[in-house]
Amino acid sequence: MYQEATPPHVQVSGYPNPLPGQLAAAGPYISPRGSRHIRTGAWSTNLCHCCDDPANCLITCCCPCVTFGQIAEIVDRGSSSNEDCSGCASRGATYGLLLLTGFSCLYSCFYRSKLRGQYDLVEAPCADCLVHFFCETCALCQEYRELKSRGYDMGIGWEANMDRQKRGVAMTPPMMAHSMSR
């Protein structure tokens, strides 16, 4: 007998199978014990959740070059083309100069794409360049939160994060650290 195959988005055995691209909208999986597991392909927070980290939101709105510099240093894994200058400061200054010309979104779009490639994140909610063109500060805040949720202390830079890791200090995402203390 001929049987029709079940489409991938139809619910089977009580569990919905998401359509391609729906995984990112689902967000992180929080287990019954409260620990957080970041799914492959999904951002840890949505684009418009800037106020999840109010301090970073305020800094990014007032001086986006600071947030961008922190993101770029982690994404570039501390490598800098200018050995005399800190990677965070030099990238932040470059971003600041481009901000004056209106082309900063092209520079930051490159880093969003690089971040997505490193962590296998989906290009959501739309193309990286469009996200940075229309929602620059929201995009920077989301990228900052993504790296922070992956255990990076954004205020200390790449080298200090790697030094912590070498010494055996766990790079535990904040939510997991809170749930483990209970």
Tell me what the structure shows.
- The chain has 182 residues and is mostly helical.
- The chain has a domain at 54-150.
- It is built from nine helices and two strands.
- It has helices spanning 22-26, 54-62, 64-75, 87-101, 104-119, 128-134, 136-149, 157-166, 174-180, and strands at residues 29-30, 36-37.
- The protein has a two-stranded antiparallel sheet with strand order 1-2.
- A hairpin with a 5-residue loop joins strand 1 (29-30) and strand 2.
- It is globular and about 40 Å long.
- Mean pLDDT is 75; it is low at 1-37, 81-85 and 175-182.
DSSP, total strands: 2
- CA-based shape: globular
Largest sheet: 2 strands, antiparallel
- Element-level helix/strand string: HEEHHHHHHHH
- The assembly state of the depicted protein chains is single chain
Sheet with the most strands: spatial strand order = 1-2
Overall structural class, as computed from helix and strand content, comes to mainly alpha
Low-confidence stretches: 1-37, 81-85, 175-182
Distance between the termini: 56 Å
Q: Rg, please? A: 19 Å
Strand content: under 5%
Count every helix, treating DSSP H or I runs of 4 or more residues as helices.
9
Mean model confidence by pLDDT: 75
Share of helical residues: 40-55%
Give a short overview.
InterPro entries: PLAC_motif_containing. The chain is mainly alpha-helical and 182 residues long.
